[in-house]
């Protein structure tokens, strides 16, 4: 059936276009009888509003922008899934962009989203983001900004995060309770806050358990996501060259690094967990199907995405009502998942 427009509905009923428009939008100065006549005819004639015109009137695009470091990532795909569900339920479209851990690309993507007139932006920062002027541009434009997972603590906006320091601390304490004292850490790049916090949690677990921190047991990953599997194997090889007979366990910054590490050990007949224990971070689905399966930290990505969307829409409502926006930081709880790569008993 061919779609109609406001003028045709108004002409058919003998009303003005303004009256029809008010009836369709539920204005109180239009009688219930008139509203019913308009709504019934609109349904009969397959009328749908011109979204562009509606957006001009309401000053809303009904579009949300999301920037993530990579889409080929179990953690981020779960976050996106939750954001999409929440936005769809509210009648919003989502533009998803991938920075590829590239700061310059992230800046261009912010400019593009701003030029598209999105109502709000959610970002997990690239590992190489140090200058945050593009984030301040969003805030200065009056557009709500929510940072999640990889954040900058100095930006004044709402944030959704895990307590990475606490999660890392708990994971390493578990390795220590298993009897391990020489624990290596394959850490992330020096810049991202979550990488810093996981390293600090690792270090604090050692010192709190009277184990001297040895910087030679800490290896930095480039943290390019797609290369993490290969880098995990390379770091495991280097660790064995440096400390083969003097390391008990490894705590890695993410699960891809762990999987690459395990792959190297399996190929070189190094038994996990008998000879060396392994604990990852993120609880990728792959950690449950490797041999042996890998203990990991569950970040509850779906809850991160759901809360990020929830806070964004809360701020959009506050903005529409011309209310003061009070920034919030929400910490999504993590949990330890114990599998076969750790002995899971006190030695």
From TrEMBL:
The keyword DNA-binding applies. SUPFAM superfamilies: lambda repressor-like DNA-binding domains, Periplasmic binding protein-like I. PANTHER family: HTH-TYPE TRANSCRIPTIONAL REGULATOR GALS (PTHR30146:SF109), LACI-RELATED TRANSCRIPTIONAL REPRESSOR (PTHR30146). Residues 4-58 form the HTH lacI-type domain. This is Transcriptional regulator, LacI family. Gene3D superfamilies: 3.40.50.2300, lambda repressor-like DNA-binding domains. One of its GO terms (molecular function) is DNA-binding transcription factor activity. Keywords: DNA-binding, Transcription, Transcription regulation.
């Amino acid at each position: 059936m061919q779609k109609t427009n406001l003028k045709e509905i108004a002409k058919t009923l003998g009303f003005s276009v303004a009256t029809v428009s008010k009836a369709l939008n539920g204005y109180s100065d239009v009688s219930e009888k008139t509203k019913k006549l308009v709504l019934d005819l609109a349904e009969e004639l397959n009328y749908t509003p011109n979204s562009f015109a509606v957006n001009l009137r309401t000053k809303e695009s009904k579009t949300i922008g999301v920037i993530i470091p990579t889409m080929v990532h179990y953690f981020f795909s779960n976050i996106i899934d939750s954001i999409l569900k929440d936005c769809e339920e509210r009648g919003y479209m989502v533009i998803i962009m991938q920075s590829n851990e590239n700061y310059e690309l992230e800046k261009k993507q912010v400019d593009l989203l701003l030029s598209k007139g999105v109502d709000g932006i959610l970002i997990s920062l690239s590992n190489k983001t140090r200058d945050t002027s593009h984030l301040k541009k969003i805030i200065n434009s009056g557009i709500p900004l929510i940072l999640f997972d990889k954040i900058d603590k100095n930006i004044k906006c709402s944030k959704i995060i895990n307590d990475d320091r606490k999660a890392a601390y708990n994971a390493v304490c578990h390795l220590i309770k298993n009897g391990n004292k020489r624990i290596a850490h394959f850490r992330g790049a020096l810049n991202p806050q979550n990488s810093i916090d996981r390293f600090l949690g690792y270090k604090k677990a050692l010192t709190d358990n009277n184990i001297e921190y040895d910087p030679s047991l800490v290896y930095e990953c480039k943290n390019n996501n797609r290369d993490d599997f290969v880098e995990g194997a390379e770091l495991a090889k280097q660790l064995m060259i440096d400390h083969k007979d003097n390391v008990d366990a490894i705590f890695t910054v993410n699960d891809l690094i762990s999987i690459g590490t395990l792959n190297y050990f399996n190929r070189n007949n190094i038994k996990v967990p008998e000879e060396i224990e392994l604990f990852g971070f993120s609880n990728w689905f792959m950690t449950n199907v490797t041999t042996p399966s890998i203990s990991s930290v569950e970040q509850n990505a779906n809850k991160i995405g759901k809360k990020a969307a929830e806070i964004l829409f809360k701020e959009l409502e506050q903005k529409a009502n011309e209310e003061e926006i009070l920034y919030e930081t929400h910490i999504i709880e993590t949990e330890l998942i114990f599998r076969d790569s750790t002995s899971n008993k006190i030695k």
